[in-house]
Amino acid sequence: MSEKNIETTLPFIYQWSFVEWMTSLDARTPLESELCDVVTSESLYRLETYQSSFLSRISSNLSETIFETCENLFGAEVVAKVLAGFFKFHPPTADSITDAPIQLPEHLRATADTKEALLFADVADVCMMRWRILTAEDPHGVSPRGDTPLDAVHLLSPSEYIAPSGKHDLAAAWEAGSEKTSEHLPDSLFNDSAGLLLVKSSPTDLTFVRVPTKLNEFVRALVAGLSIEYATDAFEQSAAADAENCLALLTEFMAKMQAQGLLTQRSP
Amino acid sequence: MNTQNIIWGVGLRPAHYSDWHTQTKIPALEIMADNLLHHRGGPALWHTKRIVDRAALCVLHGVGINIGGLSPLSTKYLGGLKDLIQIFKPRVVSDHLCFTQARGIQSYELLPLMRTKKAIEHASARIDRIQQALGVRFSIENVSAYVNYKDDAFPEGEFVSEIAQRSGCGILLDVNNVYVSAMNFNLNPEDEIKRFDLNAVTQIHVAGHSTRDDFLFDTHDSAVCAEVWELLKKTLGSLRFSENKILPIILENDERNTSLKTLLDELKNGSQFCGEGISIGQPPHSSGESHV
Ligand SMILES: [Fe+2]
After folding, report:
1. Which chain A positions have a beta carbon within 8 Å of B254's beta carbon?
2. Predicted ipTM beyond 0.95
3. Distances from the Cα of B283 to the Cαs of B14, B58, B91, B139, in angstroms?
4. What is the pLDDT of residues B74-96, one digit of tens each?
5. Which domain holds residue A216?
6. Which residues of B227-257 are buried (b: 16+ CB within 10 A; e: fewer)?
7. Structural domain includes residue A54
8. Whole-angstrom Cα distance, residue B77 to residue B65?
9. For residues A7 and B104, is the Cβ–Cβ distance under 8 A?
10. What is the DSSP string of chain A?
């Protein structure tokens, strides 16, 4: 019998009843579910322990790995509630728990009814980007050099860039979420259009760089893999109005990146 | 058994990475496969490689293969596991005899199988495919259970052993899980241990559990209780191994918020109670070869 056929055969149907009941966070008691036909009556009441473990396991795993900053900013209870709401509509299908919330930011943006919920969505995006880049291949074959000329540099890889939503200062939010805070979220987090660049500078380190609005196109082009010459073209086109000011900004930004060891000589 | 064959160790956890780096001798370590699956770089892989390099030996343990489930085995998951086997060369590779998902929906829990003849056939065939895909001998672990089924036809030890015998896989005997399940179903833990084919045991787990209302729950968040150490001691007394066989015994601690020192002290006390001093460093009979 093939694996597909066996899935609907009677001796195994209890597995679907079990998982469906657990993960849909079904309000029915075990007694009201199909499981009462297969589970012994003496142990039936213990089924609830599986249902509560399901959410607590996912929440604690994701808070430890991906959403620590969300937890610091919004509190553990809010994170658990957000995840419960999400998984009720999107039962997890990924092999790894860390891949399970991929659609979370999108879901939050579609359902958000407060400005805090929208900030949560943006910060969740940064958290997931951080996790993705952190577990990607490590940079190798390059070593940071502070004196590299600007026209011979490229960004260390892998790096990712979050374009501004125009609503939040994500770099400031990230900083505010570096430790637990019981304070009210400052208003300054809710009105900004700076971008955020994440660069993996070693196997264990990620650097978060706030990108001035005027350099968005330049950094987006660099991260997309364009050469510095093409990225500069993109920057000049987007900054035609006050090119001189922007050039100064670009020089300052690149110098800062170099000082942090985030720009290096192109590998041969 | 000859106690010289035992290599004691603990589960490797991120909270202890920095402490391991400063330890001069590292016992056996168990790597949680799911915490590293599909990582191509980054801190978890970086630390694990450096720490395991200096360990007496390592074993690889997963929670998501879905051995007794019905969804087709995930080639992506098995591929990730194979990558980890190549990197770490573990002595034992294991996962639980349970189901974790149905129709593609993940529960991320170790759900108990209905112990029937059909389940034996199904799980044995899947383990066969797992062993072929991974290219190593696999080991299956008995889980803690809180519910049982009206149609259960075999005691757990017989169920696990029959599958091991049919598929040729090994058994990761979790002594705490035997204890928890036995207590939850009013059985005698010692009798339950005897139902396992102890010749097929390739690794042992001990761990702490907690009490919920009127049943025991496998939480790995507390110290191993005296009854479980006692059960382990009796189990070791019944084991007969060939001279070259190495048996890793791992103290699981994945939900514990405790220092590495406390953990190693507990391991040392437990191993002494079981009749021998802790074996840290090179395994006495190890040829460096994996026997997975
Ligand atoms: Fe275990």
Report:
1. none
2. no
3. 25, 11, 12, 20
4. 999 999 999 999 999 999 999 99
5. 136-268
6. ebbbbbeebbeebeeeeebbbbbbbbbbbbe
7. no
8. 7
9. no
10. --HHHHTTSGGGHHHHHHHHHHHTT-SS-GGGSGGGGTB-TTTGGGHHHHHHHHHHHHHHHHHHHT-HHHHHHH-HHHHHHHHHHHHHHS----SSGGGTTTTHHHHHHHH--SHHHHHHHHHHHHHHHHHHHHTSPPP-S----TT--GGGEEE-SSEEEE---SS--HHHHHHHTTS---SPPPGGGGS---EEEEEEEETTEEEEEEE-GGGHHHHHHHHTT--HHHHHHHHHHHTGGGHHHHHHHHHHHHHHHHHTT-EEEPP-
Among B70, B77, B80, select the one facing A15 at the smallest CB separation: B70
Quick one: tokens of A21? 């009941």
* Residue A124 in domain: no
Through-space distance between the first and last CA atoms of chain A, rounded to whole angstroms: 56
Residues A47, A44: Cα–Cα separation, whole Å: 6
> What residues of A are in contact with residue B130 (Cβ under 8 Å)?
none
For B3-273, give the CATH class: alpha beta
Task: Give yes or no for a cis peptide into A144 (omega within 30° of 0).
Answer: no
What are B42's two structure tokens?
Answer: 């980054």
B147 with A12: Cβ contact below 8 A: no
Residues of chain B with pLDDT under 70: 1-4, 241-243, 276-292
Number of other residues whose CB lies within 10 A of the CB of residue A262: 20
Cα distance between residue B138 and residue B129, in whole Å: 10
Q: What pLDDT, in 10s, does the model give residues A195-231? A: 788 888 778 888 888 888 778 777 877 777 777 677 7
CA dist., res. A81 & res. A249, Å (int): 42
Minimum CA–CA partner of B123 in chain A: A3
Host H or E run for residue B28: strand B28-32
In a domain, A52, yes or no: no
Give the residue from A199, A213, A202 showing the smallest Cα distance to A245: A213
- How many angstroms separate the CA atoms of B216 and B177, rounded? 10
Cβ under 8 Å to B: A residues 5-24: 6-7, 11-12, 14-16, 18-20, 22-23
In a domain, A128, yes or no: no
- Count up the domains in chain A and report the number: 1
